[in-house]
């Protein structure tokens, strides 16, 4: 099994840890994960499945996660738009003039920003379990009560107690995945996350970030090929969010994953990879 290649991207005082899968000569595909999540939010098996489609798959740690620049908890000095700008930093560092983006959850939000800010650099979008940038319609459904209740305990979490932190993160994954939750697999992934994270509490800096620009109705102006993928049982951003994206972005395609929550189940990896590869090749 081919191991990913590790990369360190630097710009001024910023460091972004990244990994790539596949042949460096294959077309690049940049994966952008969601809030509080490092690159490990993209399962290794999913990245390898994408690479097997003839793509060079690049994933990275957001600020305040994994091996990237990390600030103390509560001291984030950047914005949501800053995270979107990190996408351009990655493309520049990998000397990629134009690439398709795959964003999940907040990563899909950031990918939409990038497509509008730098349309010449974004070839296409795949938006997984995401929401419209600058939604301007009736309220869309949001977080489940169970998830809100779970996050209500965050302020009482003892970050010096590794077992307690692992249990909190594991319960987060269970609530996201629903029927696809595999306790053994997710516990191993949580252990990997904690092993390579300087300050686990800092990942929740993402919850404090502000959007500083007016993006009202912005998603409707996206004009690159777009594939929307959404689980029909998503408890974080329920399906109407994905449907609104697909309806509002001209000519967007919608792929609904049956009996699927806010996650990337192994049973869907091959089908998702085929759809993404087909879009990259313009089929």
TrEMBL record:
<dbReference type="InterPro" id="IPR029058">
    <property type="entry name" value="AB_hydrolase_fold"/>
</dbReference>
<dbReference type="GO" id="GO:0046503">
    <property type="term" value="P:glycerolipid catabolic process"/>
</dbReference>
<dbReference type="GO" id="GO:0004806">
    <property type="term" value="F:triacylglycerol lipase activity"/>
</dbReference>
<feature type="domain" description="AB hydrolase-1">
    <location>
        <begin position="27"/>
        <end position="264"/>
    </location>
</feature>
<dbReference type="InterPro" id="IPR050471">
    <property type="entry name" value="AB_hydrolase"/>
</dbReference>
<dbReference type="InterPro" id="IPR000073">
    <property type="entry name" value="AB_hydrolase_1"/>
</dbReference>
<dbReference type="Pfam" id="PF00561">
    <property type="entry name" value="Abhydrolase_1"/>
</dbReference>
<protein>
    <submittedName>
        <fullName>Alpha/beta hydrolase</fullName>
    </submittedName>
</protein>
<keyword id="KW-0378">Hydrolase</keyword>
